[in-house]
Amino acid sequence: MKHLQLPLSRADIDGLEVGEMVTLSGQATMSIGLPTHQRMVEHLDAGTPLPVDLKDGAFFHLSCFNRESADGESHEALYLNPTTSTRYNAFMPRLIEGCGLRLVGGKGGLDHASVEAMQRQGCAYLSFLGGGCTLLSQAIQRVVAVHWTDYIAQFRLLTLELSELGPATVAIDAHGNSVYERLHEQAKQRLQSLRDGRAA
Amino acid sequence: MAITSEQITQLTADLYEWSLKKVPDDTKAALAAAAPRESDDTGRKTLRIMLKSADAAESTGGLVCSDVGIPTYSIKIGTRVSFDGPVRQAIVDGFARMAARSDPPILKMVTNPLTHQRSHAGKDMPIVTFDVIDEADYVDITCAPKAMGTGRWEALETFVYPTHQQIEDYVLDVVLRSGSQACPPIVVGVGIGGTFDHAARIAKEAVLRPFGQVNPEPVLAGMEQRLLQAINTLGFGPMGTGGDTTAMAVHINYSASHGFVPVAVSLNCWINRRTRARIHADGRVERIE
Questions:
Q1: B195 near A CB under 8 A
Q2: pLDDT of A138-173, one tens digit each?
Q3: CB contact under 8 A, B107 and A109
Q4: A194 and B107 in contact by Cβ < 8 A?
Q5: Out of B65, B118, B176, whose CB is closest to A191?
Q6: Is the distance from CB of B173 to CB of B274 less than 8 angstroms?
Q7: Within this chain, do residues B114 and B7 fall inside the same structural domain, yes or no?
Q8: Domain total for chain A?
Q9: Between β-strands B155-160 and B127-133, what pairing exists: parallel, antiparallel or unpaired?
Q10: What is the DSSP-derived secondary structure letter of residue B57?
Q11: What is the per-residue pLDDT across A170-198, written as a single tens digit (0 to 9) for each?
């Protein structure tokens, strides 16, 4: 099991291969809001800095319950858990390269345009356990920042300090290898073989 | 003795909460049995992490998944019971009670499809189906919150005089499309026949069937076996990162239909949310799973 410490260099990411399991520590930013992704892209397009600098960092599709204190001064993160990343396919290539991301992740993967963007940028995709809520939440150390509080909890741009988050599987590496593309192609072929076998 | 609205409210709240915090025993057993058989190293490790996650949620009262979905209830009312107040409203209240009291608090997942606003409640929430059981003196309630991981990929198509092969091909195409995204190993429920809405309903009932029962229809028992084997040949594996444990079970229901035959495919992810209990006419509450 490899341990990753954020922020990460291009060389760190180039050293990752699909199928490897990793844990992760450091500051990572997350959101599962489609409007959040939209707003992030609008910032990039307008040349307006995002409220958090994601260069060499991680942006994950992790939903998180973050509770505001009564005075609104502080936040507490109670749990986190991944959601299906393909929902954000349309936004991710722009965000990966525009933000200079080294890690993205959630569950279920990203499409080919993202795989290409990740290869150009030097970025890997981590598959977290869907249904890993209580287990993964043990990694939460503290809330570093909560931005865009006009959104509901899981749509905010949330940065957490994490310790040993995982294990997660490297499912897309920075060399253009995607477990999801490989498995989908393989499944299609195997299904065709089953059908051919039946017809024979 | 009448069943009270409060009993229904309390039980629907409890069933929802239980389903979020405990993976059914048969499902944990299936994951545990699959681990030593799994040929892919990452897949085998992932199955073990799933079991660890289930145990962590159960032992600490935490959530298994943060996507608490939208609650769906199937209510079967024995014709020998009576009620002392509203039933539909009692279920709505149960849903609200769960959302208000939940510890840890649940995220807002119920979404208005027109405005995309999220909430803990919403029009026609929770989704409830009612049926009657002749002569029974109890009310049987099943809760199965439906989240996006699998809810996104469920499908229905209407065929005209389909062959068994066409039906199986359709099920496999749905599974191929959901691929790595439905948090495998999945449970696949298939509903064949009836009408558009009925096929979906019996597919959902099929997905909630406990593991290990052999379909009493030999034709369907064979189809279940073939489909399970074919799905596990596809290679998506646990969490869709590779392996030969892509499905834990395939369950099929059928109903008579016209020459047009709807075929519905319902899916559950590896946490396989389902809880079930009965309120007996004497007031006794029996938790079934």
A1: no
A2: 999 999 999 999 999 999 999 999 999 999 999 999
A3: no
A4: no
A5: B176
A6: no
A7: yes
A8: 1
A9: unpaired
A10: H
A11: 999 999 999 999 999 999 999 999 998 87
